[in-house]
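Hey,
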Amino acid sequence: MKKIIVFVTLFFCAISAYAIKITITDPNIRPFRVFAYPYDEKNQFLNIFFSSFKSLPNFEFVEEPRSVDYTIKAEDAGNDFKITLSNEKTGEFFVYQIKKNYPSLYLTMDKIYEKITETKGVFSTKLVFSMNWYGKREIFLSDLLGKTLKKLTDNKKDSICPKMSFDRKYIVYTLYENDGATSLRLVNINDYTEKNIYSSKELNLAGGFSSDNRYVYFISYDGKQSKIFKLDVNIGKEVLLYKSRARIVSPITTFKEDELLFVSDEYGSPQIFLFNEKEKSIKRVTKSHSYATSPTVPRESGYLAYLAQVNGKNQIFLSSFDNNELVPLSYGNSSYDDIVWLENPRFLLTSRNDGKHSIVFLIDIPTQKYVKLFDIKGNISYLNGY
């Protein structure tokens, strides 16, 4: 995979500017010029294929096959499709077979994206979220484009805080029980079986998985004290990592050994803190806003994204861990609910609710462009995925 340095320059009041140096996977500053030969526009799979690539800022589809980087030809081969990708600079061509189902389509789209950009594809990303459903909240699983939506839970009480493992095999979430307890439930995405992995009278809020997917971090709050636990999902054994009289939420790994991020009102308003598991020490990360929450990090780069309140709206910011480098990724009157950094660190996911519908967006960090993926009638919260 390629890596380069990206400079994001922001202008304020038309008189001052500063540059933030961010290391991410190759952002393909110049869009790849692509020509698509005519295809059956009535076919839903081919429409998804081409419309998805056309929506990405690092691709430019042109009307004639002149001075292009790649050409794409799609043919119906009966039970499947044949896609021919030609590199017009080298003369190489690659043939892909797509079965007429969504998993095959997304897998092939990822392979073509990776062949062109030499970076990780994102179309096979799975999303999980909590959503209102007949008076309570249930957990839903979706593909990146919202074409396949599955309700994973059918509980009598609210189901919230879903988090997906990085190998896309499991989902952990918090369930409110009838007796007032809360439990952590683990769902196997392959067969949709579910089991209880922790339960108590405290408020237990699911956090993220460890980078090796063996552990789940979670918060237990008894009304007086917050405790961060690390729970082995295989044997169901928990280890206390940290406790505080402050309210703590959202523990996630930084992908560095023995480091977590979490949100706490340790110093008053919610801020993001870095926790060192070995030293049992915390360090405040966010300092530029009076209210910061929902941290998310990529596997590489040493940066984080988070939500901060600006004029009463949740806005998205990209920051270094010392908070000395700061880039706003959203502006205006829109308010965003959640953010997720994808496996390809060029992209973030976010959602926005307009009262009746929720809209899910893909954010292209180098260009700061928002690509609408889908909308859904309902109130999405706790958006997560990988």
